[in-house]
Structure formats: structure tokens, C-alpha cells
Write a structure and sequence with these properties.
The protein is of the alpha+beta class. Helix content is about 25%, strand content about 30%.
Length: about 350
């Protein structure tokens, strides 16, 4: 299971209970999106803007990286997650299962060209990862590597109205997945990279069938797996293979402080619940993950939008990263209207 790459995405179609004819059509659609004609040129791609990256850190510095077991840091653990063990049966083939998070993590690192090792991670809380203390950092297990990657699931919702579309596949609901890179140096251990994404259960037709509990576990497992893949698509790819997601980035500068801009962002997002579907909103990190409704009738594109506010002196910058499929025609500008509304709100203060 550790070597599953994009083919794992197709598992959602199996679980959805489609007949062979519909599944064949779906496979044709997927083969189109991943055909050489629509693959982005290296010169066309841009790097995403993570929540945090040390100025001196570059992915090229990593040789072998140690992988800790995936963490479940949810406050509500009603829906069981498949982390170290395999997920539910797909319902299509008798011995076909949704892969667990640890298997996807190891397999995808191999897929993008990184050597890995396995490390143990002791008792860890969300606070340890967000604001790691020197005492906690010194306890981290790096094995024989100088690099450690930790992935954590912060939230899962299988009924929330957060929708992302990838070609013929549609995902409703989400898993909020965070990734952390730690570097061991002779004098100290440092957090050098951190980001957070919303993974979705990508399924042909957008809806699974079956018993409620099985459907929830299946959608949760697929959402976590998708979140891991999205995080690792932000890495430098060394395998010569094409990333499955590419990015659009932008920065908007505001003359006000980030507290005022955060209030304006909240108001702009919440004024039209049908236009903006919010998966994650956190005042501590000043971060929002959302998808926007299609701009025109018949449009099926719905991308994950990643907004972070960062102070620059007395002003505030909104850093925007949009992830979309390798079919670059799916790229959309979901933030211009949002920015206009934010500026209008700030002008009234």
C-alpha cells in the first residue's frame, strides 16, 4: 500500500458504487487531465506560499527525512480515522482498501523522490507543534537523519458544505491536515516549515453510497489521504514526475494593521454563505481555507484557497495560494472580489 500514488485518488470512485461503464468514463476523464498535452511546463509553475517557512530553509537541503506516525489531534474523534492501519474496504473489490495515512505518507514521499526513514514520536499536543518548546524539541527522534516530518489531522467533517472539484471528481466535506518539518542542528532543533491544507474525499459524482458509518469512515480516510498528498505537492519534486496540483499565488497589501484586516476578511467571507465555503478559520494563525462557488453557470471548478495574513511593520499583507489541477484551464481568481469587499469594509472603519 505504501507505493500508491495518484491511483489512490481513484479509490473514491470505487467506493461511490458506480457501475463499470461509468467508472470507465471517469478513467477516460482522468487520463485526459493527466495527459502530456495538459501537463504544466516547469517554467509555468510557481511555488506556494506556506503558513511558515524559515528564510534559510530550502527543500534542496533535505537528504533523507524521518517520518513520524500521523497524529490525530482532533477535539472530536467520533469518526474513526485510518492512520497506521488500512482504511475501510472500497466496496468494489473484495480485497481493495483505502490506504491508511502512514502508508500514503511513505508512498508519496517515495513518489516525489525523497529517501525516508521511520521515527517514533512521543506524546505530542497541538501546542507542542504550534509553539514548540526547547524541552520538547530536544526529545524529538530524528533517527540517522537531520530532518523530521510530522503530519497531524486537526479536524474532519464528512457533512460540511466544503466542496472542491478535480476534473470529473467532486469532494464534499474535508479533513484539515497540517505538516511540520523540523531540522536538527549541532546547537539546536528548529521548526523550519509549516503549512495546513484542506483535503477532500474526491469521488466520481461527489457522493458515496453505503451504510452511514462506513461512508463516514471512508470519506474521512480519503480526505486525510488527499490532505497529505496536497501538502507534499508543495515540496520540491525530485522524481521527474509531474505534480498533480499546481498553484497560483498573489499578495494583497493593506495599509491597516492585521487585526483590522482580519475583521474585514471575516466579514467579507461570512456575508454570503453561498459564495464562500469555509473549511478552516483560525484567528491565532490568521489563516483561512475556503472554496468559492463557480463564477458562471455551468462552471465546475472549485479550488482550495489558502489565505494567511502577515504583519509587515504597521501594515498587513494577505498572502494567497490557490491549488488547482494540472489542467491549468481550471485556474480561477477567487480573491479579487473578496479583496474589494475587504477594502470597502476597512474604508468604513
Amino acid at each position: 500500500m505504501g507505493k500508491i500514488d495518484w491511483g489512490g485518488v481513484l479509490i473514491g470512485g470505487f467506493v461511490a458504487g458506480f457501475d463499470v461503464r461509468k467508472m470507465f468514463i471517469g478513467l477516460l476523464v482522468i487520463s485526459f487531465f493527466w495527459s502530456p498535452a495538459v501537463l504544466p511546463k516547469e517554467s509555468d509553475t510557481v511555488s506556494p506560499i506556506p503558513l511558515f517557512s524559515d528564510p534559510d530553509f530550502h527543500f534542496s537541503q533535505i537528504d533523507t527525512i524521518c517520518l513520524a506516525p500521523a497524529l490525530d489531534l482532533r477535539s472530536d474523534k467520533t469518526i474513526a480515522l485510518a492512520l497506521s492501519e488500512r482504511g475501510p474496504n472500497t466496496g468494489f473489490f473484495p480485497n481493495e482498501y483505502i490506504p491508511g495515512a502512514d502508508a500514503v505518507l511513505a508512498g508519496y514521499f517515495e513518489h516525489i523522490g525523497y529517501g525516508t526513514a521511520q521515527c517514533n514520536l512521543g506524546s505530542t499536543t497541538a501546542a507542542d507543534l504550534r509553539t514548540p518548546s526547547d524541552t520538547w524539541l530536544r526529545k524529538l527522534d530524528f533517527g540517522h537523519s537531520n530532518w523530521l516530518f510530522v503530519v497531524a489531522v486537526e479536524d474532519v467533517c464528512t457533512s460540511c458544505d466544503f466542496t472542491v472539484t478535480v476534473g470529473a471528481m467532486r469532494g464534499k466535506g474535508y479533513a484539515i491536515v497540517s505538516g511540520f518539518i523540523f531540522e536538527k542542528r549541532a546547537d539546536a532543533v528548529r521548526l523550519v516549515w509549516r503549512d495546513r491544507v484542506a483535503g477532500t474525499p474526491l469521488i466520481f459524482g461527489g457522493e458515496m453510497m453505503g451504510r452511514k458509518g462506513t461512508v463516514q469512515r471512508g470519506e474521512a480516510a480519503m480526505s486525510v489521504d488527499d490532505g497529505i498528498r496536497r501538502l507534499l505537492n508543495e515540496f520540491e519534486w525530485r522524481s521527474g514526475k509531474h505534480p498533480y496540483w499546481v498553484f497560483g499565488v498573489d499578495e494583497e497589501n493593506f495599509g491597516a494593521g492585521c487585526d483590522a484586516v482580519w475583521d474585514a476578511l471575516n466579514g467579507a467571507l461570512r456575508q454570503d454563505a453561498k459564495k464562500y465555503n469555509i473549511a478552516f478559520l483560525d484567528a491565532t494563525d490568521r489563516m483561512v481555507l475556503y472554496s468559492a462557488a463557480p463564477h458562471s453557470f455551468g462552471s465546475q471548478a472549485a479550488n482550495e484557497n489558502h489565505l494567511v495574513l502577515k504583519a509587515q511593520g504597521n501594515a498587513c499583507v494577505m498572502q494567497i495560494t490557490q491549488s488547482f489541477t494540472i489542467n491549468r484551464h481550471r485556474e480561477r481568481d477567487d480573491w479579487s472580489d473578496l479583496t474589494k469587499e475587504m477594502r470597502a469594509r476597512l474604508a468604513k472603519q
